[in-house]
Design goal:
This protein is α/β, with parallel strands linked by helices. It has a domain of 242 residues: P-loop containing nucleotide triphosphate hydrolases (Rossmann fold). Helices cover 47% and strands 9% of the residues. The strands form 2 sheets. A 5-stranded parallel beta sheet has the order 4-5-3-6-7, sandwiched between helices. Helix 9 packs across helix 12.
Amino acid sequence: MEEAGRERDRTVAVEVEDTSAATKDAAAVSTKPAKRYPLALWIAILGLIMLVGVYIFSLSLKQNGMLFGLMQANMIEKEREKPCHDPRIPDAEIPYVHYPTPNTYDRLVTDSRVPRFVREECVCTGVRFFAILSMQRSGSGWVETLLNSHPNISSNGEIFSVKERRSNITAITKTLDKLYNLDWYSSAAKNECTAAVGLKWMLNQGLMKNHQEMVKYFNRRGVSAIFLLRRNLLQRYVSILANAHDSAMKQLNGTHKAHVHSKDEAEILAQYKPTIDRKMLITELKRSDKLASDALVNFKNTRHIVLYYEDVVRNRTKLMDVLDFLRMPKRKLSSRHVKIHTKQLYDHIDNWADVNNALMGTRFESFLNGSSRRRS
């Protein structure tokens, strides 16, 4: 019995010693500092990851560029095979010259045994597609009438002012397809085969909302963009307020006219001097400025030209740049539009002192003296 008891005590002692040793080992492990990698090593690893990412991204861009190049080369080759291809057109211009086959220009010929429809007037007539991209009260109506005075240019007006036509991307592309197929009837256009056909499109009429799809559409269909913007946004704002007033009051014999064709009508409309909310003025100017800037950025990868209303007013030869852009023969352009606000800006604003105080010291200060430049 005593021997058995001693054996049990020795066993317990061994277990206690083992447990104590394990505890010491665990403590030694837990108190041993963790191995840390040098900061330089982490920076090197991060740099390597970034280099790999940049390399993969560059490969992607290269592949996309090659794909676009192959698509364009394929398009050029197909155009060359068409019977209407003009060998004088440079390869770079081929994607922008089209040969629509409209349905609405069909003419019934009855001088043969079997009456038939023909499209003789449109066969092999190369057509360039364009869009005047602008903002309300920026001179787009005036410039469009100037372009429409050219016998080879036909612009169809502000067709997306109708909400249903811009309700979604499908409605927009359907409308554009009909327009560029020369099947769109408009009182503003010539409705016949011309060398350039387009429309006037305001930035806030579904264009910016669907800008990604529109950039793809423009590039795919070979549409050239003509930006027409206004430098002095304060003058534009005065025009917006005056136009809204006439829309409500109908000052010209009970009718509203956004554009006038006589000096008498212009003088009547110019008599109204809007009172501008100084608290909202800078916000409105910033909003308009951002909209125009965003449009130029979003459509920078399209074939485009940028015009400013003030430049065209001072120098009509700026429109010759547009004719060159559309590859149209140069000729004198004319319009019946009469400018409404012709006096100094302070003569067209009722609370000029408030407006002056609101803009002094801001980046829009230069607008006060009619200048088109603003501080960044």
